[in-house]
Fold S-adenosyl-L-methionine-dependent methyltransferase.
Amino acid sequence: MSAGNERFSAEAAAWDSNPDVHRASESALQAILQHRPDLVEDKDNASTNGLDVLEIGCGTGLLTLRLAPYVRSIVAVDAAQGMIDALKQKLAKAGEEDGNESNRLQDSVKPVCVLLEDPEDPALPPSDPSDTSPACPRRRFDLAISHLVLHHIPDHPALLKTLFGCLKSGGQLALTDFENFGPQARRFHAERRMDGVEFHGIEAALFAEQMRAAGFVDVLVKPEWEMEKAVERFPGEWNTGKPKDVGLETMQFPFLLCRGTKP
């Protein structure tokens, strides 16, 4: 496990206490729903006729659980075991509650701890549920999503190749992350949280080029929303913890939606 994954496993228990991650996840959901209005229109039939979704870097499931009512299934993948354990705990708690929606979450969301680098990884569900052999072809998906994950991944072409292989023909990408708009984008992370950060945001033109090189068509990478976020006034200011709303500096960070379709 990389140092970044160890960090995320260690932080999983307190992850949801940060209001920024909730705000960003809700904005990502709204961007996806705006891109795919059919998910809203067909929500009542999602459990039978909805999309099968692959989410990379699901974390504690903040986007997963928001999107789940709009789709048939979500395979939620993360390389940090602590994050997957947190999502499993949420699903178990939901299973203790009464109601159809709680039952559907149990049935539709499958958390998987794996560093996904191969569309045929045996950790993914089989295309034929009755075939339990490791050699069985893996399921293909209608939609692949990720949120605030791309800037932690060093090899974007390799990731896009994997996602291309995981999609059905006609399947789509909807990836969201903050934009690299110049040197100030580095301030998105406090210095003490730089472990596992590979990029200070995503360069829109470059990523669009990489998507096309991976085989995606109808590619569009552009800002969809902005989020105000508290930042350090100087590197290392928060090494002993963020101050409580006193003297905080804030910045606006643009977020990209990276869209594309597998022919």
User: Anything to note?
Assistant: The radius of gyration is 18 Å.
